[in-house]
Predict the structure of VCBS repeat-containing protein.
Amino acid sequence: MLRTLRATSFLLALLFIPALNASAAFVDALIRDFAPVSGYVIQPAGNEFIIDLDARQQIAVGDIFSVVTPGEKIVHPVTKEVLGTLDTVKGLLQVTRIKAGYSYCRALGAVSGIRNGDVVRRFQNIDVDFWDYTGQGEQLFKELQATLPHLPWQGYVASQKNRPATPALPAGKSPALYFVLTSLGLDVRSPDFEIIHTYPGSGMRQARISPAPAISPAAEKNDSAMITRASDSGSETYWTSPPMKGTPVGVETGDFDGDGKQEIAVAFGDRVEIYRLAGGNYQQLATLPLGSAMRAYHLDGFDLKGNGRLQLFVSAVTDFGNTAGVMIESQDGQYRITRKDIPWHMRSLTLPGEGAVLLAQRMGGQGREFSGPVFRVRLAGTELAQGAAVEVPPKANLYDFTPFRFKDQKLFVCLGDDGYLNVVTPSGQVVGSSVDKMGGSESYLEVTEEVQSGGESLPAYIPARIVVNENGEIVVPVNSGFSLLSRVRMYAKSEVKAMKWDGSALRDAWHSIQEKSYLADFRLADANNGGSKSLVTVVAFPDYNPFSARRAALHIYKLP
């Protein structure tokens, strides 16, 4: 789900794979062609059935719908909340003709007991196989899974074991949807193996293998006005790291091992990498895989043990949609995952008058990513425990507020659902807003909306980090660029802005240069062990190729 355009700063580390036309167009087509759509059977029509969907819902001839009957309710044993239903699949229908207000469908295979008013769901309740005839399509498979998470994908390895030597309908196989990758492109075939969608390759261009460069001291640049204070200009030092593979979800800096030096941790969906930059020497210290069944979405550090070392708290979710965070710390000279399956969203935050605290919040039921109060995390013996609740604005979740004081008045700065930066009182009154939209994050949770005609898996995006520094400046990233509908975010331009609240309006303080990258996270810290704070950002570069992993890098700017 997280892809955009091509970057030019570093060499790509890619496999030989066919490239489709523009990545944006490819993803746009996938989302359009396979977005979840639900409707109802109107009536039978001879050997066909009429459903209440047409081109306005972006359905197309060849689309496949499962006909389901909602069954027994799934009820949470403690909260008694209805989480969903155990559905019964009556059969599969395929669209043959589209009219104004309705469409005709034919039955695929045996159907039984279809009635007027039965629920139909597009491309759901049907197995999805990915057959790779290039031997180099596993990355594309991962991209498809991320872009279309609501499809019931079979595993990559299992699909390859069961695919025939040449593309053909297997004898005796239960109905399935087939994504078939060949040297000519990607075909999607129906259960009877008819092509319903084709995504051709782009002139069979190959992406050349370039080995990932070994980590070495990265160059310092002296670019004009890398960070510009309002009504000022000049040259500021800028440092960038060698490339990393993937789209980052967070960055943290601090003394992780107690040696008095600052380290840098970068979290990706599947791992955490730890580095140190000192005296121009950039060194990788550790890589900690998180496990194939987990995906991280947030990173923060906090010295919960009070031993002078930051522990890293990674908020993560399992493939089943359950929060399962981990704690990473340095022990006996090595970095280790020392706690798993932490059942909370987690965040470190500075509270005015109190200092840094570790906060958490629980995940809600179906369709709700947050539930209950935001609370302090404490140690009860050797276990993590829920502590006292903290005051937050009404309806705020763990990630979308940052407190600050203005002339002894307690306020919060929040990113609204509309993308504007708001200054909010403890009662929830908005007393000021930014002129332009700010924030923007590609880090997300997957939630299932509970709707009458069946739940749909949707991304719930985590708000971007907001920091209020010691000068009272409100520092926030600004991501912009390409985005597909409201379900998929892919940013291609970014900068960091600092605003100052004067009691009536937010005023510009300073901003970094706009770059062609997605800014995933940032810190204000002495990341290079030089004795003064810098702006530390972790960014992901755009990529034209939808099959390849994105590349990331750390940037460090001298603050004004």
Notes: Residues 37-122 form a domain with the Thrombin, subunit H fold (CATH 2.40.10.170). Helices lie at 23-34, 138-147, 156-162. The longest helix spans residues 23-34. The radius of gyration is 25 Å.
